[in-house]
Amino acid sequence: MRHVSILLQTVAKQFYIQNSGFFLLLLFFGIGFLSGKEHVAIASSVAQSPMLLLYTMIGWSIYLWATFRFSLEAFSSKENLWIRNVIFYSSREQWNILLTMQAALSAPIIAYGAFTGIFMFKYHNWINLGTLLSYICIGSVLPVYLYRKHLAQPISNTRPNRLKTAINKWIATPAWLWPLSNLLHTRLWLYLATKALSIAVLIAFQVIDDIQVYDWRWQAIGMLLVSMANITLILELFKFHKQSVPWMINMPLSGIKRVIIQWSGILLLMLPEIWVLIRYFPSERSAELLLSLIIYGLCIGLSLFASFFIFSSEAEDALKKYFYFFISLFLLSLFGVPVILTSLLLFAFTFTVHILYYRVNLD
Q1: 88-94 contacts: CB < 8 A, separation 24 or more?
Q2: What is the pLDDT of residues 174-212, one digit of tens each?
């Protein structure tokens, strides 16, 4: 059905694109970091332990909540008001369309659930298997039921919070805080999920390095992964500058002020990771390496931000380029190129794009 295809393109595909950093980390740990034997061992443990299955379902529930929130935001956007026409179809067609969309969003859970279910069947653990199947069925049907209720409701204009309005009148938010403030207001769940994952990965790299001593390349690869995980958040910062405040380019601001307004958002975005890196950094490592890694992470974020001015404001148009960008930086670290040298190259690229962008637009 054509409506199913359009809905998949509008909601499911956009969800995976906008959370590409999250799935990049999952692919790295699921394919590049763990071997097939380790995957089998993990699935076998989950299949035999009700407690591990419970923890797994808690993680899946967080993921399902993220897909649910994303879908509601997509349904409520002005560009997607046509989706509300789905409610005029028969109940059977509504369920078919929305179940297909939810199945696409829940594909990672369904795939891994099927993989784990094979071991539950192998070990004759019917209670865990029944619990797993029930969870997957409820996780697919319940969101669709809520989607139908949401689509059937009239669009209402939400009244602004009086307290927030008063605070905004009393305290003027500085311009350099606008991008991050907008991100926290509009994509809070994306921000929290991304930060939770990136911080967990960063802590894991520090703990593993503290137990089993590696050379500096291990730390560089960890910082690269964590920085790339923020690509969707950096894209949101870029969209704010490009779509919400395009008039700022015509403001009589000095070059330094323009740099502060644009680049401070990246620094604020990376502050949680920087704090965690400093907090859990192995004491045997040098302070020079710590400083180099912080600069490296910030330069990766700045270069990603600058690249959107060149490639496209839409992530899907340049997704392959960012994958090649990640592979290039990964290989540079693997072959021992100092992170400070890579940082200088990334910063030179960022600064060049910044200068050329304003020169072209102001001329």
Answers
A1: 93/1, 94/148
A2: 777 888 888 888 778 778 878 888 888 888 888 777 777
Ordered by start, the domain boundaries in the chain are 2-171, 175-356
Three-state DSSP at 160 gives: coil
Taking the CA atoms of residue 115, residue 118, residue 124 and residue 128 in that order, the dihedral angle to the nearest 10 degrees is: 30
Going by C-alpha positions, the residue among 135, 144, 143, 137 that lies closest to residue 58 is: 135
Nearest Cα neighbor of 19 from 98, 151, 108 is 108
Query: Comparing C-alpha atoms, which of 122, 156, 6, 140 is closest to residue 67?
Result: 140
Q: Distance between CA 219 and CA 22 in Å, rounded?
A: 19
In order, the DSSP letters of 329-341 are: HHHHHHTT--HHH
Instruction: Tell me the per-residue pLDDT of 9-35, one tens digit each, with 9 for 90 and over.
Output: 888 888 887 777 677 667 766 665 566
Residue 232 near residue 212 (C-beta atoms within 8 A): no
Contact criterion met (CB below 8 Å) for 210 and 219: no
Distance (Å, whole) CA 354 – CA 97: 44
Inter-residue contact 182 to 107 (CB < 8 Å): no
156: region left, alpha or beta (phi > 0 left; psi from -120 to 50 alpha): beta
pTM above 0.70, yes or no: no
